[in-house]
Q: What sequence folds into this?
């Protein structure tokens, strides 16, 4: 049966006469300005420098809008606004605070389709994902955390929880709106005020969120959104009147931030890189495991810190798993992110595509066997075929370093001890996956894997109620759930 | 049957994770089929239907009318395909066969004490022979679910193999009545048993038990077919039956078929819908595509 | 003639052994009358490295012991300390502490150990959660020990500072390397003897004596240390520690404001500071539910 070595030359053909015609999402109903200013103290204001930078659609290379570049003075203005707002906001009853956050959640649900379309235009992810995952989850995060605002005493009995003050939040480009929600919602529920910087390639949904927040009637200055690149981020990190920094992004930048604030009393949470092991045992439900592997690495073009980028397959089923994986990859549709049938959208930026292609070159040079699906990809824009590296070794750079793209390395293993050792043999510890039909093996594995999230017989699942965050160099602090409130409170 | 030389142990068939199956199915349902691919899909669905009547009150008159419809789906629209087959009780095979002469539409007969299968081995053989002698092109047998659930897999296997022997060149569809099998693991096991015993098609349901065909159940069976194909190089067909009455749902099945087994299965030689009311819904959709206006069922014959 | 007293040689405590510092260096510890009480090891960077190796190799065994078992071992440490109370009081007196204060420090230390012994199998319930996710999954979060913890313990206190810093760390399943008070180091080494006779596995606690100005940068830069606790007030050292911690994203906790003999110096949150929250997901099948079966 499926566990045996195959003896036939059977082959499935997914190049069918009947294919799906393009089904583009309607973008006629969205409203985008040509130029976006900084959102400070409840209004949109021009940047001190008068400088703006362009944001592009990575699928077409077309310019979408211009976004203001905040400098130190702008950040200072935002922090001052947040500080001033903190006085009243932190004293507002939890019940009232919660109602504001609930209102934001509802507004986001109402405008969900607009957010999804803009997220896809600006970031390149498929409309299926922004519509079904990013935007609803973002709204759910506000909804979930809203309810905590007046219940913090129950969450941390005996601790008299108090907000920290002004929090500076810096978020990445892979889940622009969702990360904004992960950051802002618990901060507000805990009674803090916020200065948030979205990533420079994906500012638009954060700015649409600013419009929504303004419309919600949230008191001025409680949430401030400043746009810009690394320099703007540094201005936030180094601002003396910020009480806490929350950062999601690369481990390199995370370390830089940790170092920069060493002379201060700023609190810090970091959600950094990962190189997760996804482990398939011979007794797993193989077809569902393969599906989990696909979701694990090709979700959001692989731009996921918790992506299951290292596949470990028990040797006795390796041939079958790889064959099934290749078949499944043939059915993935790469292309126009706005097409409802697209599975894998555009790589977020030219820079990132170059980095991914560089790793693909490294992998070939290291002697791993490359396999890419045969799908067509658009000639314009930033696209990458789903890629496997078979016969990868633990010492390959493609196995050790985070690629942040649709590239999966495949290693085989024989025993459970061996795979635990290899899975943990990495400086990261964000997530892991394990596929087996045996309960005791799952618990053994989840205990021994040094990772903050373990998906057993599933992968890449997210929920506002579920804490997320890493071990080791993947960062510290949790986002989501009860534990996600702790980094925003003095306990 | 070459496959029999490598018979697996049916006690240890692959396990299925139900939630994983449902998630995969959810992905199929988000595919958006528009424009020319929709039209092409609708015609394919029409051509894959086993137009079915399996009622105690069936008469020759009813069957004749249905057979006319099978060939003349909706004459207002030119170039429509016929359905794949009509599916009737053994007593109606003769009538159906005569009505369909020269049409290319096949006659399928249920058999083996359909729908319960609760009879003796001899009667099941006779039942099948009777249908074949009356001209049935295809036999839709039911497995003995009681024996299956008792763990008597050899019994189930032998029974299928025996009916296949009787069938000869007639294609054998094996119905599991998945609504009685309780778990997806059992559906997978039944699929493996049936294919290795010689089934040409595996089929979900009789239509007499709820739930009948569902997408998760069908996906499990398609994946079993895929594994069997890789192991033996023999293609087996799939027939979900019962519960598929809208073209939208049928289209999702087609998407699932395409992305699980690929192009080779995209014809009525390898895939059928067992349905009675689906055909009219597909016709209404085709008419809508050609005329541009939404349709009323008053304009489509109910046979 | 009176009997010549046998003087105790104070060494350091690594991997359940009592070696001298590999550097051969020492510093004389003097009493108020400027008399040498003992020659203490001036531990080196290599001693620290050896201690981290010992702590890392002990981590697997200690973190996988049942919580109940860890609880019993912490309680055993308290019992052993109680049994040697007089010796510790004498050492504290020798280091220039008043009799009343010495007695209080020892009894508080014992009680603190008992306090954390009780927490070993309870903090998990406090910090765990079952999370009601919207999809068909069972989802739960549990605390797990961070790993190897480097501790620069209080300078002011010989015993209580040491116990306050070690107990929550090992109660939570971590292993540690501790730098004892430089000016009041005696109890630390004697406490090692207590640890070594309390069923605590070798390497779970490693204790060095020496100089924080020399060692803090090594404590904070070592790539196999997961977390660092600092109980002193030196601003420059704090800055260096935080800077170096970024090398491998170490968790850093600065307890510069802690008042050792207050109730606030003990709480399950000190255990939590060296815990990682792990969240596990698993699908849940719907059988015969209102969803219409499978």
A:
């Amino acid at each position: 049966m499926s566990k045996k070595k195959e003896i036939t030359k059977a082959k499935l053909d997914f190049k069918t006469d009947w294919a799906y015609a393009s089904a583009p999402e309607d973008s006629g109903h969205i409203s985008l300005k040509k130029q976006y200013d900084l959102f400070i103290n409840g209004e949109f204001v021009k940047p001190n420098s008068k400088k703006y930078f362009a944001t592009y659609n990575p699928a077409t290379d077309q310019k979408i809008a211009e976004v203001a570049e905040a400098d130190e003075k702008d950040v200072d203005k935002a922090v001052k606004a947040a500080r001033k707002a903190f006085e009243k906001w932190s004293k507002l009853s939890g019940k009232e605070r919660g109602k504001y956050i609930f209102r934001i959640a509802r507004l986001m649900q109402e405008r969900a389709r607009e957010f999804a379309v803009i997220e896809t235009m600006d970031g390149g992810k498929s409309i299926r994902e922004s519509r079904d995952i990013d935007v609803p989850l973002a709204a759910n995060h506000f909804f979930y955390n809203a309810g905590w605002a007046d219940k913090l005493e129950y969450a941390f009995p005996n601790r008299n929880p108090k907000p920290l003050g002004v929090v500076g939040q810096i978020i990445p480009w892979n889940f622009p709106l969702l990360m904004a929600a992960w950051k802002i919602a618990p901060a507000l529920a805990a009674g803090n005020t916020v200065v948030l910087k979205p990533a420079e390639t994906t500012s638009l949904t954060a700015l649409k969120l600013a419009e929504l927040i303004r419309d919600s009637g949230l008191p001025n200055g409680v949430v401030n959104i400043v746009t810009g690149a690394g320099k703007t981020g540094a201005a936030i990190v180094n601002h003396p009147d910020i009480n806490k920094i929350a950062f999601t992004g690369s481990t390199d930048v995370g370390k830089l931030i940790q170092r920069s604030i060493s002379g201060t009393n700023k609190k810090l949470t970091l959600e950094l890189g990962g190189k997760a092991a996804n482990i398939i045992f011979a007794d797993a439900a193989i077809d569902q495991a393969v599906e989990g592997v696909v979701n694990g690495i090709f979700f959001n073009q692989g731009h996921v810190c918790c992506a299951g980028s290292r596949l470990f397959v028990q040797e006795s089923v390796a041939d079958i798993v790889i064959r099934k994986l290749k078949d499944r990859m043939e059915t993935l549709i790469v292309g126009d992110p706005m097409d409802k049938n697209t599975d894998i959208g555009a790589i977020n930026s030219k820079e990132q595509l170059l980095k991914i292609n560089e790793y693909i070159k490294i992998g070939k040079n290291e002697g791993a066997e490359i396999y890419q699906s045969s799908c067509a990809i658009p000639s314009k824009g930033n696209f990458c075929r789903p890629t496997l590296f078979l016969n990868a070794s633990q010492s390959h750079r493609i196995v050790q370093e985070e690629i942040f793209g649709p590239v999966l390395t495949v290693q085989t293993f024989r025993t459970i001890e061996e795979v635990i050792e290899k899975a943990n043999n990495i400086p990261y510890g964000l997530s892991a996956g394990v596929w087996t039909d045996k309960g005791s093996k799952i618990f053994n594995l989840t205990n021994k894997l040094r990772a903050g999230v373990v998906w057993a017989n599933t992968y890449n699942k997210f929920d506002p109620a579920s804490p997320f965050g890493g071990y080791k160099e993947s960062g510290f602090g949790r986002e989501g759930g009860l534990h996600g409130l702790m980094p925003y409170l003095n306990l | 049957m070459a496959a029999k030389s490598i018979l697996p142990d049916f006690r240890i068939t692959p396990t299925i994770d139900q939630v994983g199956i449902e998630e995969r199915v959810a992905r199929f349902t988000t595919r958006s089929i528009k424009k020319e691919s929709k039209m092409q899909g609708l015609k394919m669905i029409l051509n894959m239907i086993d137009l079915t009547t399996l009622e105690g009150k069936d008469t020759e008159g009813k069957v004749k009318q249905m057979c006319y419809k099978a060939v003349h789906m909706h004459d207002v629209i030119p170039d429509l395909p016929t359905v794949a087959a009509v599916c009737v009780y053994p007593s109606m095979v003769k009538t159906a066969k005569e009505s369909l002469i020269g049409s290319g539409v096949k006659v399928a007969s249920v058999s083996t004490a359909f729908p319960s299968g609760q009879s003796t081995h001899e009667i099941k053989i006779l039942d099948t022979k009777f249908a074949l002698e009356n001209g049935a092109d295809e036999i839709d047998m039911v497995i003995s679910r009681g024996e299956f659930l008792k763990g008597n897999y050899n019994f189930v296997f032998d029974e299928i193999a025996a009916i296949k022997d009787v069938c000869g060149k007639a294609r054998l569809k094996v119905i599991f009545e998945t609504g009685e099998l309780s778990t997806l693991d059992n559906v997978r096991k039944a699929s493996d048993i049936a294919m290795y015993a010689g089934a040409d098609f595996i089929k979900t349901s009789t239509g007499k038990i709820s739930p009948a065909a569902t997408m998760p159940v069908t996906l499990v069976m398609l994946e079993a077919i895929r594994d069997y194909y890789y192991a033996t190089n023999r293609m087996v067909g799939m027939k979900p039956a019962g519960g598929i009455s809208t073209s939208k749902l049928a289209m999702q099945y087609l998407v699932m078929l395409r992305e699980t087994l690929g192009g080779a299965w995209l014809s009525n030689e390898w895939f059928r819908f067992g349905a009675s009311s689906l055909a009219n819904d597909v016709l209404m959709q085709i008419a809508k595509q050609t005329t541009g206006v939404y349709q009323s069922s008053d304009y489509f014959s109910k046979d | 003639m009176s009997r010549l007293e046998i003087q105790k040689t104070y060494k350091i405590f690594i991997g359940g052994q009592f070696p001298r510092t590999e550097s051969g260096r020492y510093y004389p510890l003097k009493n108020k009358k400027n008399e040498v009480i003992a020659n203490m090891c001036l531990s080196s960077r290599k001693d620290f490295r050896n201690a981290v190796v010992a702590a890392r190799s002990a981590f697997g065994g200690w973190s996988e012991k049942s919580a109940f078992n860890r609880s019993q071992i912490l309680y055993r440490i308290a019992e052993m300390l109680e049994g040697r109370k007089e010796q510790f009081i004498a050492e504290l007196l020798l280091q220039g502490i008043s009799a009343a204060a010495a007695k209080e420090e020892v009894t508080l230390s014992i009680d603190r150990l008992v306090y954390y012994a009780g927490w070993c199998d309870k903090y998990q319930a406090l910090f765990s959660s079952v999370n009601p996710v919207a999809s068909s999954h069972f989802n739960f979060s549990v605390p797990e020990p961070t790993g190897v913890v480097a501790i620069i313990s209080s300078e002011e206190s010989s015993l209580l500072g040491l116990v306050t810093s070690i107990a929550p760390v090992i109660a939570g399943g971590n292993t540690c390397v501790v730098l004892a008070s430089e000016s009041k180091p005696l109890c630390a080494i004697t406490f090692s003897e207590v640890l070594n006779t309390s069923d605590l596995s070798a390497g779970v606690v490693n204790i060095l004596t020496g100089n924080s100005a020399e060692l803090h940068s090594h404590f904070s830069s070592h790539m196999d240390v997961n977390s660092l606790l600092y109980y002193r007030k030196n601003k420059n050292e704090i800055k260096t520690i935080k800077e170096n911690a970024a090398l491998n994203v170490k968790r850093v906790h600065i307890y510069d404001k802690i008042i050792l003999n207050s109730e606030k110096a003990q709480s399950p949150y000190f255990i939590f500071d060296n815990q990682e929250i792990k969240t596990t997901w698993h699908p849940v099948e719907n059988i015969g539910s209102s969803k219409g079966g499978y």
About this structure: Chain A touches chain C at residues 140, 159, 251, 254-256, 258-259, 261-263, 270, 272, 427, 429, 442, 446-447, 451-458, 461, 463, 465-469, 471-476, 478, 481-483, 491 (CB under 8 Å). The longest helix of chain A spans residues 72-91.
